From TrEMBL:
Keyword line: Membrane, Transmembrane, Transmembrane helix
Lineage top rank: taxon: Bacteria
Sequence intervals crossing the membrane: 34-55, 67-86, 92-112
Species this chain originates from: Cellulomonas shaoxiangyii
UniProt name for this protein: Uncharacterized protein
Amino acid sequence: MFRRALRDTLVLLAVLAVLGVGVGALVAGMPGVWGALIAVGLALVFSGTTVVAMLRTLDASPNTMAAVVMGTWLAKVLVVIVVLALVRDMDFYSRGVLAGVLALGVIGSAVLDFRAVNGGRVPYVEPGATTR
């Protein structure tokens, strides 16, 4: 289930990189290209870290998994804030292209994650458990 989510997210971001760079170049020239590339990088950090954290903690306790997922969420939010703060006053990229591509990447990967989890086979009973 999580491998599928990771694979689908990487495919989405690869397609988004190609289309975002193309549209960014048409709309804003080289600043549009840079805006699309920054956005895809941020979307990869934002979307990929959760799936990787889930894959790394599959065999861990629910408490450990929750702690790792929350820690990676906090780390990725800090990374996004720091990157956006660093490029805020720079003019080498298109803010509109960055915002559009980033929104598409994050929303698209959230939809893919939902689809993977919703389609996953998760047992709702314990195999071999006795009833009371």
